[in-house]
Design brief:
It is a single chain. Helix content is about 90%, strand content about 0%. The protein contains six helices and no strands. The longest helix is centred in the C-terminal third of the chain and has 28 residues.
Amino acid sequence: MFDREINQLVNAIKNTSEYRETELARKAIDKNKTLRKQLEDYINNQKKLQTRYKDEQLKTKLNSLNQSYEAIFNHPDVVNYNKSSYLLNTMINNVYIEMEKNLIK
């Protein structure tokens, strides 16, 4: 029903500096196969913990997991990707907020 409009919005987002920076950062990580594999392992381990544990126990396990991957999080490519992803997500969230404001007028 709104396919054309959604595609226009997606294309508009793809033309932002936030999106382009995130894509460049992702590609830098993808070029480093070892780093990419370590990040995939981290994500998989995080998901496993989230399905097995709850509340305080989950918090403790996630803290331990994060500490074991600290060197990866300090890698310049990962820092750049996290920063650019945050900015992209913030921009998309702002789009959502503006849409919501216009819907409740």
